[in-house]
Write a structure and sequence with these properties.
This protein is about 35% helix and about 30% strand. The model has no long low-confidence stretch (mean pLDDT about 95). It contains 6 helices and 13 strands. The radius of gyration is 18 Å and the shape is globular. The longest helix is centred in the first third of the chain and has 19 residues. Helix 1 runs antiparallel to helix 2 and helix 2 packs across helix 3. The protein starts with a strand and ends with a helix.
Amino acid sequence: MDGVTIVKHPLVQHKLTLLRDKTRSTKVFRELFNEIGTLLCYEVTRDLPLETVEVETPLAVMKSPVLSGKKLVLAPVGRAGMGFLDGMLNLVPSARVAHVGVYRDPRTLVAVEYFFKAPDDMADRLALVLHPMLATGNSAVAAVDRLKEAGAKAVRIVCLLATEQAIEKLRAHHPDVHVWTAAVDESINDQGYILPGLGDVGDRMFGTR
């Protein structure tokens, strides 16, 4: 699919399988989610621009690469997106964080916003939308809409699972937004959950069901 990168790294695929297992405890589920967030962050940032600076090692002066310009904005969506945040901040501790409070109405599956806060300099930063389950695409579209309204010019989506219909909807609304995902699953059920999926990420992560 255009605009989609499926991360096939063995560690990502292994940890995804562990997450799918319904017998995982809340503690282990949360730890695995944190770990896979770090791995996905590594993949989605592999083409960040670099510039060369001069540094002095204990033995000599040399030129060496560093990240160019301002760093990232990590934008977790709702409860589930928070599961990726700590793992990614461990890798990119200088990143700013935007909070995108969006939930999916269980009856209509429409995205409902309840909170939004983003840095003032969104236009100068690459925004990574942390949206683990790209099921219908409604919440992802709403999240990207709000980030662009706040000034974001470069946006990428990092998810754990996606469906083709969600990707198609997102790309129809935002063809400039690329998606990184660990897998594309078959479909969604009547409640809007991905099949075979791994259930409600927020509930499994926080032990609320």
